[in-house]
Design a protein that fits this description.
- The chain has 24 helices and eleven strands.
- By secondary structure, it is α/β, with parallel strands linked by helices.
- Helix 1 runs parallel beside helix 3 (72-100), helix 20 packs antiparallel against helix 21 (558-582) and helix 20 (527-554) runs antiparallel to helix 23.
């Protein structure tokens, strides 16, 4: 094969970066949908992705050291295999989930970890292999080719992939269509790589056509691959916020958001409880705020002489589907607002007689922000005199399990700090009624006085919710349980603990093994490589910190969260360029970058602690850019200090990737749930101080 130019190889590197980031983001979304996921699922996927990529990087060095000279032709075939594996991976996650696990049943920690590891392993290992192999191909003809240059061009591709997905593909395409479009530049770059070799044109064209056919078949197979095992799929749409599907099983319609059933057409008892429990407390109801909805709630609201019902639903497509399938009805005075509920309250000056929250249990940080002291303070400020706040948690039959009691106690204590009266009503859901006036818990009698007709409450309330049962539940609330706050989310800790307890498992064994393996890995690294390991941990840890903090204070605005992710990628590029330019100054620059990282995180802690509610979006973007700039700066400096041969390059790539994997899991699963955002940031500072001490006490050239 005639040798291609280095530009042809670099085009493959950039295009691979674009395609891989889009594939990663789509894979995360698919796992969240199929496993009804939370931040633990996200952390497991990112951890496995980075660990497997690091493994692929190490395999590249072993493969090249034990075989003949690296060839551009092999790089082309491997890159084409990536295109096929991307589509296969997404379909495998989608189709194998219900084959491996029982349909509709939640999956535990270890099965989720193993399934994600095995399903993404072929793609991720090959992806980790391709990046250093492309460097080896270039060095086969130019031994002094700088490894930092490959790192820079890979960053260019990553930035392009993040921007392409966040600002284009997520709006206008389905997942498999997005994969098809994202891999077209890679196929074109592979063609340019093979262009000098006239002898293989026919074989390359056949392979390219087959690859396109596989990607195209995936596009045509999209809706079919989402067909439920029970009932039938009657509606499907991808939006920037997630996946919306409607399933019909006989006469019942169920709306799913990201695989979670959120609304059903046949649940009269829940609709009555949701509306009449809070509104029965009010003599005059004029203004109501409804955050999300339950099937049939509008019909129940229509029984009251309400002037305005502000219904807040973040995703316009969800509201449209609800109305189109008659899951909820349009009634007089209804005003649909497409905004995050908490963000709407923070900006609104209206006062409501009732605020009714219809959200699932806080098993994600996005939902948890509606169950914190910060939200209850907002709600209290926007209630009229004597107004009532209502929300619910998962119910119980006769026995209240200890983890559930602790969750309810935390919520009770959090709400009690903002409302004089807080009472819990047991049932299929435990309803909280919060008010600064007395609460009347004889709800059927209150509704009868107001001549509000009901079916379930009037017939079954006294049998199910006796005064004795209500008093017994409220007496079980423990005042010593910590409150749930934005920066220290106690409920998230309990949700994670309950998830493990449900399957009688513990993550302790996993983390002990991980700690042991990591310790062994670190002992085999030089001090400079340990710096890269800690930097990778800090970068991913900070990215998760920023996303969580942004969600808490601004709500889930997908465009801007996509912008945050892209900014973290974008800062690596100028950082790597600057590091490559000034790398000769060596260890002092490495230490300076560590100091910058520590100072940035210290300022982040101070800002969140004292002025979090007043921070603009630009603060988070600037913080992310500075963190990634300093991290990108260190890679070429480390390569200069330890040598830039193939062995040093692969060790540096793997140290960075494995460090990022550990930082992801540490921050998402341990630091934030169990210590809160502020202490999580302090923990990341501690990691960086260790690496700063190591490099500061090393001898030059060590």
């Amino acid at each position: 094969m005639k040798k291609p130019s280095d530009a042809a190889t670099l085009r493959v590197v950039v295009a691979t970066g674009v395609a891989s980031v889009v594939t990663q983001l789509l894979t995360i979304r698919e796992f969240l949908t199929q496993f009804q996921g939370n931040e633990i699922v996200i952390a497991l996927i990112l951890f496995n992705w980075l660990i497997l990529g690091g493994l692929g990087t190490l395999l590249a060095r072993i493969r090249v050291s034990r075989s003949r000279k690296p060839r551009a032709e092999m790089l082309g075939w491997l890159s084409m295999a990536l295109c096929v594996l991307a589509a296969g991976q997404l379909l495998a996650i989608r189709l194998l989930r219900d084959m491996v696990f029982t349909h509709g049943v939640s999956v535990g920690f270890y099965p989720t970890f193993l399934f994600s590891f095995l399903s993404i392993a072929p793609y991720c290992v090959l992806l980790g292999f391709v990046l250093p192999y492309s460097l080896f191909v270039l060095r086969a003809d130019m031994p002094a080719y700088p490894g930092a240059r490959i790192y820079i061009f890979d960053n260019i591709g990553d930035i392009g992939g993040g921007a392409l997905f966040s600002f284009a593909l997520v709006f206008w395409t389905t997942p498999l269509t997005a994969l098809f479009l994202a891999h077209l530049p890679l196929l074109l770059s592979i063609y340019w790589l093979f262009a000098p070799d006239r002898r293989n044109h026919a074989r390359v064209w056949i392979a390219a056509v087959l690859t396109l056919a596989i990607l195209g078949t995936g596009v045509g197979f999209e809706k079919m691959s989402l067909t439920p095992s029970e009932g039938r799929l009657v509606y499907y749409r991808e939006t920037r916020y997630g996946r919306i599907t409607v399933h019909r099983d006989q006469d019942q319609l169920t709306l799913f958001e990201d695989g979670v059933p959120v609304l059903s057409s046949q649940n009269l008892s829940l609709a009555e409880e949701t509306i009449h429990y809070p509104l029965s407390q009010l003599d005059d109801v004029r203004q109501v705020l409804l955050i999300a909805a339950e099937g049939g709630v509008m019909s129940e609201l229509d029984k009251y002489p309400i002037q305005t019902i502000d219904y807040v639903e973040l995703d316009p497509a969800v509201a449209n589907v609800q109305f189109d399938f008659n899951l909820i009805q349009k009634i007089e005075g209804l005003n649909v607002i497409h905004q995050d509920g908490r963000a709407f309250l923070a900006q609104s000056k209206k006062a409501y007689d009732a605020i009714i929250v219809n959200l699932p249990e806080p098993d994600t940080f996005q939902i948890n922000r509606f169950y914190t002291d910060g939200f209850f303070r907002l709600a209290a400020e926007h209630l009229s005199e004597g107004g009532v706040l209502s929300f619910s948690m998962q119910g119980f039959d006769n026995f209240l399990a200890e983890p559930q009691r602790m969750k309810l106690s935390s919520l009770y204590n959090t709400a009690k700090a903002r409302f004089e009266q807080v009472r819990l009503l047991p049932g299929q859901k435990v309803f909280f009624l919060c008010r600064n006036r007395d609460l009347d818990l004889d709800i059927p009698a209150a509704l009868e006085r107001r001549r509000i007709p009901t079916a379930y409450i009037s017939g079954y309330f006294y049998g199910n919710l006796s005064a004795e049962r209500i008093d017994r539940l409220n007496s079980l609330m423990d005042p010593s349980i910590p409150s749930n706050t934005d920066t220290a989310p106690y409920l998230m800790r309990m949700m994670f603990s309950q998830w493990f307890a449900k399957f009688q498992t513990s993550p302790a064994g996993f983390f002990l093994v991980l700690a042991a393996v990591t310790a062994v890995f670190l002992t085999r690294l030089s001090r400079e490589e340990v710096v890269l390991f800690s930097t990778g941990s800090m970068t991913m840890g900070c990215e998760i910190l920023v996303i969580f903090a942004f969600q808490i204070y601004f709500g889930y605005i997908y465009l801007q969260i996509g912008l945050i992710i892209t900014v973290f990628l974008a800062g690596l590029l100028p950082g790597a360029w600057l590091g490559n330019r000034f790398h000769q100054r060596g260890k002092p620059l490495l230490m300076l970058a560590d100091v910058v990282l520590v100072v940035c995180l210290a300022l982040f802690i101070l800002a969140i602690a004292y002025i979090a509610d007043r921070l603009p979006v630009a603060f988070y973007l600037m913080f992310g850019f500075l963190i990634s700039l300093a991290c990108g700066f260190q890679f070429p400096v480390v390569l200069y200090l330890i040598g830039s041969d193939n062995r040093a390059a692969t060790r540096s790539f793997s140290a960075d990737l494995i460090g990022a994997a550990c930082g992801t899991l540490l921050t998402s699963v341990i630091l934030i749930p169990y210590a809160g955002i502020l202490w999580a940031a302090a923990g990341l500072i501690g990691i960086k101080l260790i690496s700063l001490t190591l490099i500061g006490t090393s001898r030059d050239g060590s």
